[in-house]
Amino acid sequence: MFKAADEPSYVGIFHLYVKEYAIAAFKAAVEEVLPCSAAEDGVVEFQYLQDREDPSHFVFFDIYRDEVAYQAHLKTSHLARFGGRISPLLRKTHEGSYYYLRGGYRK
Which of 23, 39, 63, 104 could tie 44 with a disulfide, CB 3.0–4.6 Å? Predict the structure, then answer.
């Protein structure tokens, strides 16, 4: 069990929908950007999931130290390159939601 610090972490959950033929290229682009994002000081956790029923649907679960760290992430060159690389692969504009992490459980 853990409780978030007084300043809760900032969480982004994003849904991306990829063209069927572009799934492999999309996953390759994600795997390429992961180490760059993980190296950022304010990134706490970065996960992506692939829907079992619709393999062209991906969910990204990002945790940042705070909203300032998230804003810094948006300004990185690797994210700009990633966005340019995946933009033609998407079949639907991504949807995002933002949250504050208040606590939970992790092994």
Answer: 63
Domains of the chain are 2-104 (3.30.70.100)
What pTM was computed for the model?
0.87
d(CA 11, CA 28): 24
What CA–CA distance (Å, rounded) separates 86 from 54? 18
Q: How far is it, in rounded angstroms, from Cα 53 to Cα 50? A: 9
Helix H or strand E encompassing 90? strand 90-101
Q: Give pLDDT tens digits for 16-39.
A: 999 999 999 999 999 999 999 999
Q: What span, in angstroms and rounded, lies between the C-alpha atoms of 17 and 26?
A: 10
